[in-house]
Amino acid sequence: MNDDSSPGDRLRELRRARGLTQEGLAERANLSLGVVKKLERGGGARRERW
Questions:
Q1: Handedness of CA 29, 36, 22, 32 (dihedral sign)
Q2: Alpha-carbon distance 5 to 11, whole Å?
Q3: 22-29 and 33-41 helices cross at what angle (nearest 10)?
Q4: Whether 26 contacts 32, CB under 8 Å
Q5: Which ranges carry the HTH cro/C1-type domain (predicted)?
Q6: Distances (CA, A) of 3 to 6, 9, 16, 22
Q7: How far apart are CA 18 and CA 23, in angstroms?
Q8: CA distance 43 to 13
Q9: H runs (alpha helix) in 1-50
Q10: Is the pLDDT at 1 greater than 60, yes or no?
Q11: Contact call for residues 20 and 28 (beta carbons, < 8 A)
């Protein structure tokens, strides 16, 4: 990884280094698959408004 990596790129690198699929990461992190995909693409996770 270089310092110019985006957070999404870093997340993908770490996930792959641990041998996880996006589905596996989503399950372990209690997130939807869509959220994991969006984070890796560079989109932020939406916050719930109470």
A1: positive
A2: 10
A3: 110
A4: yes
A5: 11-42
A6: 8, 11, 18, 23
A7: 13
A8: 16
A9: 7-17, 22-29, 33-41
A10: no
A11: yes
The sign of the dihedral angle between the CA atoms of 41, 25, 16, 20 is negative
Take residue 47 and report the two structure tokens written for it: 């916050």
17 CB burial (10 A radius; 0-12, 13-18, 19+):
exposed
- R_g over Cα of the chain: 11
What amino acid occupies position 7? Answer: P
- As a whole number of angstroms, the distance between CA 24 and CA 4 comes to 26
pLDDT digits (tens, 9 = 90+) for 10-25: 999 999 999 999 999 9
- The pTM of this model reads 0.76
